[in-house]
Write the structure tokens for this entry.
Amino acid sequence: MNCYSFFRSFKDEKVEELDEGIKVASLSVHYHEVRQMSFDVGTRIPAHRHEKDVVTLVLEGHLEMTVGSETKTVGPGEIFLVPANTDHRGRVLGNRGAMAYSFSQSLGYPMTRPVVTGYPPLYRYFPLDACKNDLLDRIIDVVNNHRLYVPRPREFNDPFDCIVKLENDDQSRQEGIQRRINTHAGVLSFCEDKDNILLWAHYSNKHYGICLEFNMNQWKGMPVYMARVEYTMERPLISPEDLSNATASSLPGSSFGHGSTVWEPNLLRKMAFVKHEDWEYEKEWRIICSFINPSERYLKFPRKNVLTGIIFGLRTSDSDRQRIMEAIEASDPRIKIHEAKEDKSKFKVEIVPLEE
């Protein structure tokens, strides 16, 4: 269950120094981020950009802000909008500091999605086990509540997955980045194949489970970073240039998950989108999320047209099928129901519409 309180206080949150003269406390409120920012007298806000829209309300003091090519003084009770991917900078005016609140989506890395003309249908396998009712409950939760549990990298079966390797072998820095990835990062995996018998065996508990089909092209305004995994023999090393190209607040070694500035694309690719070539048969796509509150590990998706199908495995029990079909009927009867059938002449499964 995604547990969070409807009432939160900045008094309970850690204050971090984002840059010289700028202190920030952040709250994640149901997948949105609210930031309390204080600025010392004479502070300059360096030029930077976000990969999401940010709205800021000034409470105290005056800021001279330049957004794009427009410069304006903003005072108490006034707001300014910084559109995604827009350069902006500022400074504190007068002989007193300033305080402001900013509002944005908190879930997901602050990066634009890669340019994709159309995602292929993507699939996610789920295990089922007669002795573990929570596995069935998790599938029912996906159907009813239109959300997916996003695991931490340390929950993966590949010990090399999302392991940070710095080129300069700075052990202390490396461990610091890794701790924050293990705590705040989430990786949600999909694949391109619905009939791969290895995937059915490995991820749906020997064909007892199911496979869900998703149409990511219908997920408008997806607030996360998504791309296809690359496969290679060599482990990628994060170079000093990768780190220097990402601003301090975006590095996992400083305030990972607070997501106010741009992740350096090559840094993200090396950390989460490169695996050993033995995994290439999976044809994996990944969604990467960052969670300010580690207890919030669910990603909501639109109610209509994203979850488009379900496939029962060769060994899915009649009772599990019945409960899942009841949930689909109550939630979205348009979801297509299929089942895997054993091919009589080849080592393969065929995906066919469910027989009434």
The radius of gyration is 23 Å.
